[in-house]
């Protein structure tokens, strides 16, 4: 998935952490909600400004970052 239009990083927003569409919700926030047991539907209900595509972009971003770390450590 191409998440480049969804995941943004701005120096003045959330200390430059990767955020969803320039909003103040970070990739970490979404991943933490998922890890705590929230379903996609739970997240979408609690944060109506997010979309299913936003959640999938967070997962793709995290997978890509993990893949890059793995390559660096190889």
- Please identify the top-level CATH class: Mainly Alpha
Count structural domains.
Answer: 1
The shape, in one word, is globular
Q: End-to-end distance, in Å?
A: 24 Å
Overall average pLDDT: 94
Instruction: Indicate the low-confidence ranges by residue numbers.
Output: none
- What is the name of the CATH topology? Arc Repressor Mutant, subunit A
Q: Describe the biggest sheet? A: 2 strands, antiparallel
- Provide the CATH architecture: Orthogonal Bundle
What is the CATH homology-level superfamily?
Answer: Winged helix-like DNA-binding domain superfamily/Winged helix DNA-binding domain
Q: How much of the residues is beta strand, in percent? A: 5-15%
Q: What level of helicity do the residues show?
A: 40-55%
Class derived from helix and strand content:
mainly alpha
The strand order across the widest sheet is 1-2
The Rg value, from CA coordinates, equals: 13 Å
Number of strands: 2
The count of helical stretches stands at 3
Order of helices and strands: EEHHH
Describe what you observe in this structure.
With 74 residues, the protein is mainly alpha-helical. The protein has 3 helices and 2 strands. The chain has helices at residues 27-35, 40-46, 52-73; strands at 7-8, 19-20. It has a two-stranded antiparallel ribbon with strand order 1-2. Helix 1 packs across helix 3 (52-73).
């Amino acid at each position: 998935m191409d998440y480049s239009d969804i995941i943004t990083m701005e120096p003045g927003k959330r200390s430059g952490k990767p955020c969803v569409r320039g909003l103040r919700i970070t990739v970490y926030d979404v991943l933490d909600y998922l890890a705590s047991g929230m379903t996609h539907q739970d997240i979408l209900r609690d944060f109506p400004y997010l979309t299913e595509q936003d959640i999938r972009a967070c997962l793709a971003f995290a997978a890509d970052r993990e893949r890059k770390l793995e390559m660096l450590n190889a």
